[in-house]
Request: fold
Amino acid sequence: MKNYFRTGIYKVVSALMAVIFLSPFQGCMFYYKVQTLNKVTPQEIMKFDSAGKYLVLHSRDSAWHLTYPAINDNKLSGELSVLPGVRQKLITTNPKVSKRYKNTKEEDESFVLNEVHLLCQ
Reply:
């Protein structure tokens, strides 16, 4: 009887340990951290555009979607359009901490990984 009891406890303990060790991997998914560059060169902006990144232009309290960027004489120009509602939700992020985005069948916010935010000063 004692041997059967020990085997049962070992199974329960090993299953519990497996859950404890695997749960951190589940919790680390779907996080992103903002990467900040102080001065972006015209070549980098054109590289982001050619890579198909979604460019968001910020000025004071407003943000727009920037398409067809062009740089002439250190001036950025292009077409501005209103950000869709889903894109407005994640336009403010603290660059010092990681932020989680939703990735479910009902709500997919993985588009945030393809965004580049430009701040005009």
